[in-house]
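Researcher: I'd like a structural prediction for the single chain below. Treat it as a standalone chain; there are no partners to consider.
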Amino acid sequence: MTLWRIPAPESVQEWVGPLTVMVGATPTMDYQVAVVEYGSRPATWTDPVVHPDDTIPGLGVVVGAGSSYPLVAGKVYLIWVQIDLGTSEPVLDDVGIIIAT
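Model: Treating it as a single chain, here is the predicted structure.
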């Protein structure tokens, strides 16, 4: 699990990633993501996104002001992924921690 420390001013967005998601021993880019306050479970999911200027390979999530995942300074958040393996229930896993400063 990766840890990111992100400043949480009200006017900034940050791309968090790349997120490493594995199915068994194989990396995958076919998943959805959610960011929730530590101790909560996700209720809504979004598609991951590439870095805004394509300088970093892989997928991540945009957090902060105006995004689907605004941050509040002093709170801790978990990044969850949901993978559909064709079973009756998708696989859920937490892959990262964000500390909003």
